[in-house]
Amino acid sequence: MFFGQCKHFIVNLPGEENPAPVLLSRGGYTGEDGFEISIPPHLTQSFTNFLLEHAGKEKLRLAGLGARDSLRLEAGMCLYGHDLNDNTTPIEAGLSWIIGKERRLAGGFHGSETILRELKPIKEGGTGPKQRRVGFIVDGAPAREGAKIVTLEGNGGEEIG
Question: Can you give the pLDDT of all 161 residues of the chain as single tens digits?
């Protein structure tokens, strides 16, 4: 299966009466080459146990949301509701690279008035973005969602994020 492809399967899990539909997608949501498995909710535990038992610890391990977040953030990938939302433009989110040259020239797409003004530098009559998503390189454990980010000055510093 190539990156970006998906396939439908029917699986027979031990202990289950009926075969179950499975959708396997090849993608890289975390910036890694990986797979996403979509299964009926009531089969989550039995399907996970089946995979863990048959793959072995060398090939398959469980990972939590912290691992997912650190991988995707290292790759510069945004998660809707966390790093961007309805009030965040692609420019503010650091995603100007996804706006193709033809769209930049032609405009006419949803939000193009704002986005094209933000793309144009202020010295050329644009507005630039009001805010900007940036990444930090840290020593030690990364800050988790909701953590206060402060400067080093003074006692606790000024909150900057």
Answer: 888 899 999 988 888 889 989 999 998 777 777 888 899 999 989 899 999 999 988 898 888 777 888 888 888 788 888 888 999 999 999 999 999 999 999 999 999 999 999 999 999 999 999 999 887 777 777 777 778 888 877 666 788 76
Q: How buried is residue 91: exposed, middle or buried, by Cβ count under 10 Å (0-12/13-18/19+)? A: buried
DSSP letter at 56 equals: -
Q: In this structure, are residues 122 and 131 in contact, taking their beta carbons and an 8 Å threshold?
A: no
